[in-house]
């Protein structure tokens, strides 16, 4: 009966402690995006967009705290005995200068989630000079310390320690971990790479163990083990979380994931399932040694400085934005070597935008194509270079991959995958060495459509190609079609005068509205795609000066043949009639639809891909009424309405 009463009183007690978690669900935060409201942060701590918890940034002498916002019960109120607990978390210390980290972070249990009055630097945001060592303050921490503080008898600048209400560790060991075969391996806390840590307290054995590993697997052996009864150290309920600080030397301290459990084992993290760290930055660290002494040293110093200044000027100092770029930055020297000094012999061709050289990367032997631009405006080049960052992240099997780039003064170099079979125009115009078979042409058209669909609709933002033409379709070793040069036309539109925009593109592929508006759109890309379709089938350029007058403009000629019921007459004679008629009609009709004079009447890439895959039948093509009326024309267009069984075609030259 008295037991029942105790239980009753206990429940009342719990009910009154409404800010205390009574029924603790295990915490398991794989990134902190979904638990923004459950973390109380102060100082420099913040949860970044991708869910990374950063405790500090790269500023000097700052601190950051991140605690789970509710207190957790750590003791049996009746017996006063501390509970067992267990935690696993993945952290990364990214120092501003390689191997010079400051100051570290600590897994912390505390009666306060703000730690008012605490100091940064060697105090790790935990304590200050007054409270250090005072026992009324309940702070228990496991520190991952990257700085050697003589005041606190630190063993080195890369250690793990257990601290009780003090910055002086009760026990500490150099950071390391045990492999499965029980061999000990050193671990650099400031490597910038994610490290997983486990802290397990067993209240039966009165033992605390700490483990570390750069991988997902919890090692069998702890790196630090200490006999300790936390019952007298912990208060009934405590906040649990992390504290960190910087000093003269700085690091960004991240926590990528955190799990915690009372009276159970915390779940480990698979390293690959966590938010990724920001791109690591290569930094030039310039160490200046000042030697005062003989004049000789001074003169030598001056000479060296002149040399360095020249070198730095030549290197065209890496600027902040350049470090954000996704694809890698090559050194100019590296690319010069790769292309053997941009030898004429290595020249693959002239693009509209510059010369293209074949090259081989010095270290790995990977063949590359290097596109070399000169630009009249350094500003334009700079602005454009920021766009390389996003262009470089485009990845699709039908796009030529941008591997990296380099910049030297007014010159920009772009590095692409080398495409052994060159560009499509060499296979269709004039006297090609190889005649592509019908199936190959059909496949290439589908490839280009799928690459363009990705640019228009499937990537995170719409990318307008602006210069689709046979010369920009490259063929890889298996003759798959891949679009090249996406987004580059933008550079040339800007020119030196930011107010005027030049129309960039290639005659015959330029949508008629472009000459008026100058504003490229996805539908002007579709127009150019239509021209490409027709030329691949007909084996000639969109405007052919050598042709008969009625055949001069490809699209008009195809349209006339269509009306007279002799559409197959236009198919490339070099195929010798070896082609699939149904497919040919499909492609020609589609080519005409894309070449519509009215931008909104052109199908979207999504629709085009479905037509090509045979998922949707093409609507009937009907000549537009003689008098062109812009508004009525728009009303009759195919804007995605599946039920319409015909569409009007407005030839370009009326
Ligand atoms: C986080 O907070 C929300 C309410 O703000 C609550 O519903 C949820 O249970 C909390 N999650 C954890 C893990 O504490
Ligand atoms: C870093 O954190 C400090 C302290 O919160 C803040 O004042 C500073 O603006 C932050 N710096 C950056 C670059 O975010
Ligand atoms: C707390 O301790 C008492 C007495 O030792 C014990 O009977 C009870 O089961 C404990 N409660 C918990 C939640 O461990
Ligand atoms: C410790 O817990 C008791 C109640 O369990 C509370 O009265 C006291 O204020 C707590 N101590 C601190 C420093 O928060
Ligand atoms: C140290 O922290 C305590 C507790 O928050 C505070 O009262 C005290 O003023 C701080 N001491 C200094 C020197 O800032
Ligand atoms: C270690 O912990 C105990 C309490 O368990 C304490 O008395 C002692 O002063 C601590 N510090 C060191 C340096 O041992």
From TrEMBL:
Domain of life: Eukaryota
GO biological process: defense response to bacterium; defense response to oomycetes
Compartments in which it is found: Cell membrane; Membrane
Transmembrane domains' residue ranges: 283-309
Catalytic activity annotation: L-threonyl-[protein] + ATP = O-phospho-L-threonyl-[protein] + ADP + H(+); L-seryl-[protein] + ATP = O-phospho-L-seryl-[protein] + ADP + H(+)
Mode of membrane association: Single-pass type I membrane protein
An MF annotation (GO) of this entry: ATP binding
SMART domains, alphabetized: S_TKc (SM00220)
EC number: 2.7.11.1
Keywords from the UniProt entry: ATP-binding, Cell membrane, Glycoprotein, Kinase, Lectin, Membrane, Nucleotide-binding, Receptor, Serine/threonine-protein kinase, Signal, Transferase, Transmembrane, Transmembrane helix
Family of this protein: In the C-terminal section; belongs to the protein kinase superfamily. Ser/Thr protein kinase family.
Name of the protein in question: non-specific serine/threonine protein kinase
Record organism: Populus trichocarpa
């Amino acid at each position: 009966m008295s037991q029942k009463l105790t239980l009753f009183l206990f429940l009342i007690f719990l009910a009154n402690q409404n800010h205390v978690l009574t029924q603790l669900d295990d915490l398991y935060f794989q990134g902190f995006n979904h638990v923004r409201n459950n973390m109380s942060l102060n100082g420099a701590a913040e949860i970044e967009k991708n869910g990374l918890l950063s405790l500090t940034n790269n500023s000097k002498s700052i601190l950051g705290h991140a605690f789970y916002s509710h207190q957790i019960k750590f003791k049996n109120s009746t017996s006063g005995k501390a509970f067992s607990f267990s935690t696993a978390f993945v952290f990364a210390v990214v120092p501003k200068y390689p191997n010079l980290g400051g100051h570290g972070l600590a897994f912390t249990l505390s009666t306060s989630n703000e730690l008012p009055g605490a100091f940064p630097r060697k105090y790790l945001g935990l304590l200050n000079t007054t409270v250090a060592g005072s026992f009324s303050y309940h702070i228990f921490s496991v520190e991952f310390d990257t700085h050697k503080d003589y005041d606190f008898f630190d063993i080195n600048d890369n250690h793990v320690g257990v601290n009780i209400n003090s910055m002086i560790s009760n026990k500490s060991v150099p950071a390391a971990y045990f492999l499965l075969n029980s061999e000990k391996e050193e671990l650099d806390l400031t490597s910038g790479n994610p490290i997983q840590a486990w802290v397990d307290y067993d209240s039966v054995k009165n033992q605390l163990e700490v483990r570390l590993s750069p991988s997902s697997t919890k090692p069998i052996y702890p790196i630090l083990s200490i006999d300790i009864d936390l019952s007298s150290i912990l208060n009934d309920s405590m906040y649990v979380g992390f504290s960190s600080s910087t000093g003269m030397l700085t690091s960004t301290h991240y926590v990528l994931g955190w799990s915690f459990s009372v009276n159970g084992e915390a779940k480990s993290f698979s390293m690959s399932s966590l938010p990724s760290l920001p791109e690591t930055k290569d930094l030039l660290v310039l160490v200046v040694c000042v030697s005062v002494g003989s004049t000789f040293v001074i003169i030598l110093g001056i000479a060296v400085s002149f040399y360095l200044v020249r070198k730095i000027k030549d290197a065209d100092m890496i600027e902040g934005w350049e470090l954000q770029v996704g694809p890698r930055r090559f050194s100019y020297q590296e690319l010069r070597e790769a292309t053997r000094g941009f030898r004429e012999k290595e020249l693959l061709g002239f693009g509209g935008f510059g010369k293209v050289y074949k090259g081989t990367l010095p270290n790995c032997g990977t063949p590359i194509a290097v596109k070399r631009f000169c630009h009249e405006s350094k500003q334009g080049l700079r602005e454009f270079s920021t766009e390389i960052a996003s262009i470089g992240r485009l990845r699709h099997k039908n796009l030529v991959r941008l591997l990296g780039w380099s910049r030297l003064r007014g010159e920009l170099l772009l590095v692409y995958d080398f495409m052994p079979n060159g560009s499509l125009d060499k296979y269709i115009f004039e006297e090609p060495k190889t005649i592509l078979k019908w199936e190959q042409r059909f496949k290439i058209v589908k490839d280009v459509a799928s690459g363009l669909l990705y640019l228009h609709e499937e990537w995170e933002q719409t990318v307008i190609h602006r210069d689709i033409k046979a010369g920009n379709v490259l063929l890889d070793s298996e003759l798959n079609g891949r679009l090249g040069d996406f987004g580059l036309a933008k550079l040339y539109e800007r020119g030196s005068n930011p107010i005027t925009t030049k129309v960039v593109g290639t005659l015959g592929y330029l949508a008629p509205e472009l000459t008026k508006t100058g504003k490229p759109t996805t539908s002007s890309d579709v127009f150019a795609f239509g021209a490409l379709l027709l030329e691949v089938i007909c084996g000639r350029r969109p405007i052919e000066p050598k042709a008969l007058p009625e055949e001069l403009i490809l699209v008009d000629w195809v349209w006339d043949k269509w009306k007279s019921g002799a559409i197959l007459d236009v198919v490339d004679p070099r195929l010798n009639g070896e082609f699939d008629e149904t497919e040919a009609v499909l492609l020609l009709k589609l080519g005409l639809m894309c070449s519509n004079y009215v931008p909104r009447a052109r199908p979207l890439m999504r629709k085009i891909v479905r037509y090509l895959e045979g998922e949707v039948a093409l609507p009937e093509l009907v000549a537009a009424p003689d008098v062109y009326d812009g508004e009525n024309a728009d009303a009759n267009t195919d804007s995605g309405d599946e039920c319409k069984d015909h569409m009007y075609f407005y030839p370009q030259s009326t």
